[in-house]
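Notes from hallway chat w/ T.B., transcribed later so I don't forget. T.B. wanted the structure written out for a chain they're using in a teaching module, and asked if we could keep both sequence and structure tokens in one place. Agreed to drop them here.
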Amino acid sequence: MHRFFVPLKWLGEDKVTIAGPIARRIGKVLRVGDRAILLDNSGWEHEVEISTVEEYKVGGLVIRKSLAVSEPRTKVSLYQGVLDGKRFKFVLQRGTELGVVEFVPLICGHCIIADLSDIGVARFRRWRRAIREAAERSGRGHLPSLQPAMLFPQACKQAGRKGFSIILCDEGASLRSVLDERGSPLSVNIFVGPEEGFTPEEVEQARMYGLIPIALGPRIPRAEMVGLVAATAILYELGDLE
């Protein structure tokens, strides 16, 4: 069944009215009598039967309402060093499908861009659209948040205040040993560098803010895979993939 995130104000107790580009998207794939799941981004799913379809307006009748059960208990935030367009979009899509709840574009020494101003509004819109479409496709009940891009020191300071944080680099403890020591953290912040990884100075700076260096093993995945591998391992170890 098709799933669409829509503003909460469009959802009534018995009827829904959808307008604008979202209505146009729905009208391209559904007809009168078809059913869809509408999500309000508060954790509720609304099963709706389509009653009217116009180019920029769709109406429907609410059949049932239920709580989404697909969100992970462990809240994983991914601080990803900015990559080129397609590869960063890949991280957002696959991370959303895995269960990441927050993405923070990270600007550090080896990034392809060196300044916050290099990330424009249009690029953020494309990234948010990629997250939304991946969330709808994968059955998420909440949209992962996409935070403004951060410089590396600022991001380390923020993550250090938020709690359990790791930085993935060439040398460090094993992920399993650190999780065994920490028990079952409610949230985990994962720092992943760009293609060339983090500089030694950045790793040392991260340590000063309380981030734990982690090595994923003898094999070296591409930059767009590192955070996804770590997020999958964390969610598995903490029981969120059962």
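Follow-up for T.B.: The first strand starts at residue 3 and ends at 5. Might be a good example for the class.
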